[in-house]
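protien #1 (seq + structre)
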Amino acid sequence: MASAALTLISRAELTSINEPEYGRRALVIDGMTIELGDTGLRDLTGLLQNVKSGKLYFRRIGYEAQFWADNIVKEVAGNTSIVPGTASLATAATSVTTWEAVGGTGLARLGISSAGNVVLNGEPGTYSGGLKVLTAAAWWNSARPLPGVAYGQPVGV
């Protein structure tokens, strides 16, 4: 005999979403979506601007967007957009600016500017470090493909 203190969910509607080409996995329970997605590591180096050399990687797991700069060589002082127009990668609330200190030959911070750009702010030098931000931005789809290339994959001919 069942106790009155127990609640049994007998007919919850459960479906799943699996879109590996866009790095998205989710469960839908009675119309509520729970994102489980992981884009895998993406190489954004081909999108770098205003720096001499280095690498930039991106990964999104659920609602967390992660950036890693690896030996980015910055030649000018100040606020330098190294990947313009990346608001969709990091945050739907582009009025929020997030910064993390990065290590290197000078003092600098890696951040997301109020315009949604990945920015390296500081002295000229070589820098490595990471940045993590929470995002409410939508997952990618066929109309808006993932940026960069999957890490370890050939760029093309």
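ok now protien #2
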Amino acid sequence: MSDPSEPTPAAPTLGTGAERGLDPSLEEMRRLGYAAVDAVLADQGRLSDRRVARRADSPQLLASIDEPLPRQGLGADSSIDFLFERIVPAMTRVNHPRFHAYIPVPGSFYGFLGELLAAGTNAFVGSWLGGASFVTLELVVLRWIAEAVGYPGEAAGVLTSGGSLANLTGLAAARERYGPTGLERGVLYVSDQGHHSFAKAARVLGFRDESLRVIESDHEFRLDCRQLHDQIRADRHAGRLPMLVCANAGTTNTGAVDPLDEIADLCAGENLWLHVDGAYGGFAALSEHGRGLLRGMDRADSLTLDPHKWLYVPMGVGCALCRHRELLERAFRSDAHYLQDVPRHEVNFFDRGPELSRPARALSVWMLIRSVGLDRLCREVEHDLELARLAETLIAEDPDLEVVVPTSLSIVVFRHRLRFGETEQQRSARDRLLVEAILEDGTLMLSSTDLGGRTALRLVVMNHRTTESEVRRSVAAIRRIASAPPT
């Protein structure tokens, strides 16, 4: 009981105006918003004239970027200036029209606009109760994506952070089909050209290393169906449980497309789950050329796609589609006391993937498709494929370079020709030196890989900003730098 002689403590007061809350006035928010967009557009407007990438070490970057933890705010104008003066100039520009390394992530203005609106509305898209309208929008976008690539529109799906998480999502659904026996005796099959994320997903989901069978690819770096069939038979004879085949709709190394129809026939006959990793090449189905190469992709039990690659939306949007809704939801279904108000008869994306808190990833895809239309996107993909074939032709004309494998999608794989009296190690060293010299030059960026114990160079075209003149400029730079005497 309180002592009445003691003074009554003053009630706590809440700050008002500038003392409370983080948002400036509407007028100031509008000014800063324009300033931020103007800074982005000013940088993008000079993109083709900028270096694609540069080497940097951590001490150098820390000296430029690190600063004491601010106790008092330095202001948004200062922060925008700091970003574009110190951080952006040192970045690798994966949206550059001459970024030909790895798999480009080009983005687009309409995708950026959708991302901006997603951040501004700050929607929660993990559950129906948390954001029913945005959940509905994502379902619409998933149906659009499925229809665009020829996959069943009634398939269940979820937008993920990228292809790695989409591969994990498909494998998790497959694991549900086989139950605990799958982890005990199950076997998973993947090409030696398969993406590293598949093996990582298998480990995360509890499969032992010996559960993974890596099947050699053929001379075109496609999964060898005869070897696959023989390995499945051998595993059955040994008392193992063949479960799943991961096929590639465009490998990261060479762009090779596995014989999807033949693999689908084999999986149907052997009662195996077919997962198709189309993170790189799946959206090539938007083009007439790509649809022919990807025949059979529509038969997959689960499918990985990456809208932030060949659908030109900003980084951070992958897609997992699955024919078997009940298995997908069994793999990820969540129950907790604090979720008891969530309507379970509606779609809750936390039941279709590992995330509860999810942003409105669909908004960038929706904004792009709705703004420009699918036909325009189809033409852009077709144009990328044509430019890759042009790059292949131009490289093949150089007497010192050779194309390693015919270009199937948009990855041109080439290397130095072996000179008389030269060892393979010496030739490979010239490949590696060329990659470094090109990086130092800054006109473009390539990446290298290993194919059958031999180095190879990769030139990828996957950018709606890339034109014929940019491709010619890139190949001319490659030839110029390759012919320069070593320093």
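The two ends are 87 Å apart (CA to CA).
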